[in-house]
Amino acid sequence: MSLDGTWNVMIDSDMDAQIVPRSATLVLASEGSTLSGTMAGPYPMGEGVTISDGKLEGDTIAWKAAMRGDRLRPQVLEFSGKLGDSEISGDVEVGIFGTATFKATK
What CATH number is associated with residue 42? Predict the structure, then answer.
């Protein structure tokens, strides 16, 4: 399966939805081991958040997305996971709030 394209991301978390969104749309483009793209979702994610530090090594994938929710406490979501046959799944670090899990499908 090609990594490039649009992915529907579901985040499973006990945290309040005001801290971490439950869903987002991820658009990825890969060039070698470098990933670029955007994420968009409900508050606090916002529209058109550019991902940073995107990388792919084998089947291991990682990227960061800075949410636009609270300007006084900007929050960066740090995704890390594995690329499977038809999905990406793994963990999301949510700063001081801990870790959640995610699954993305095309």
Answer: 2.40.128.20
At position 91, the amino acid (one-letter code) is D
The model's pTM: 0.86
Those residues whose C-beta lies under 8 Å from the C-beta of residue 71, and which sit 6 or more positions away, are none
For residue 69, the 8-state DSSP code is S
Provide the residue range defining the domain that includes 90. 5-105
- Indicate the number of domains in the chain: 1
pLDDT tens digits in sequence order for the chain, 106 residues long: 689 999 999 988 776 655 566 788 999 999 999 999 999 887 666 677 889 999 999 999 999 998 765 555 567 889 999 999 899 999 999 877 788 999 999 9
